[in-house]
Specification:
One of its GO terms (molecular function) is nucleotidyltransferase activity. The chain is built from 6 helices and 9 strands; from the N terminus they run βββαβαβαβαββααβ. The protein is an alpha/beta fold. It has a 7-stranded mixed β-sheet, with helices on both faces.
C-alpha cells in the first residue's frame, strides 16, 4: 500500500500569535519536524500545504524531499488546505493527515494508522478515547472529503457521516494541539 503524508501548515495561528509552521521547538520549526516525522514513518509522497507567510516559511524551513503546495485560500480555513493537499497527492492508496500543531505525535502513532491503510479505510487516532490526529483517509474517500471540507472543519463532517475506525495511541504519542504559546511542551520550548 502506498500511503501519502499530508501536512497542513497554512494557518495564520491567530490564537497562537503567529503561523504555527514557524514555531521553534527543540531546535526545529514545527513545519520541519512534522514533515520529517511523516518521512520517517515512510509516507510517500509527503505534501506540505502552506498559506500564511508561505514565503517566510520557505525561506526559514528546511523542507527537502517533500512537495510544497500553496493554498491561495488558506484564510478560509483548514478545509481549503485539505482540498489543496488532497489534489496534490497524486496516486496513493491512502493518506495520513497531520496538522502542523501536534508536536507530540510519533512515528509509532503514524504506523498504527498506516497499518490499516486501504482505499476503503477511514481511521483516526484517539487519546484516552478523545479523537485527535493523525487521520487516515483511504483513496476511495478523497472525493467525498474534498466535497465536504469547508471552513475550519476539515474532514470532520465527512468522518462523522461515515464509519471510522478509532485507533488508541495514548500509549505511544501525545495528540494535544498547540493553540497558544503556553501549550508548548515546557521542557522543549525554545
Amino acid at each position: 500500500m502506498r500511503v501519502a503524508g499530508l501536512l497542513l501548515a497554512a494557518g495564520a495561528g491567530r490564537r497562537f500569535g503567529s503561523p504555527k509552521a514557524l514555531v521553534p521547538l527543540g531546535g526545529k520549526l514545527f513545519v520541519e519536524s512534522t514533515a520529517e516525522l511523516l518521512k520517517a514513518a515512510g509516507c510517500d509522497p509527503v505534501v506540505v500545504v502552506l498559506g500564511a507567510q508561505a514565503d517566510v516559511v520557505r525561506a526559514k524551513a528546511s523542507l527537502d524531499g517533500v512537495t510544497i503546495v500553496d493554498n491561495p485560500d488558506w484564510d478560509t480555513g483548514m478545509g481549503s488546505s485539505l482540498r489543496t493537499g488532497l489534489h496534490a497527492i497524486g496516486i496513493a492508496d491512502a493518506v495520513v493527515v497531520l496538522p502542523v500543531d501536534t508536536p507530540g505525535v510519533t512515528v509509532a502513532a503514524l504506523h498504527r494508522l498506516m497499518a490499516l491503510a486501504e482505499p476503503k479505510t477511514l481511521a483516526r487516532a484517539v487519546y484516552h478515547g478523545e479523537i485527535g490526529h493523525p487521520v487516515l483517509i483511504g483513496s476511495d474517500h478523497f472525493a467525498g472529503v474534498m466535497a465536504s471540507a469547508a471552513g475550519d472543519q476539515g474532514a470532520r463532517d465527512y468522518l462523522n457521516a461515515n464509519t471510522v475506525r478509532h485507533v488508541e495511541c495514548a500509549d505511544v504519542a501525545d495528540g494535544a494541539d498547540v493553540d497558544h504559546p503556553g501549550d508548548l511542551p515546557r521542557n522543549q520550548a525554545t
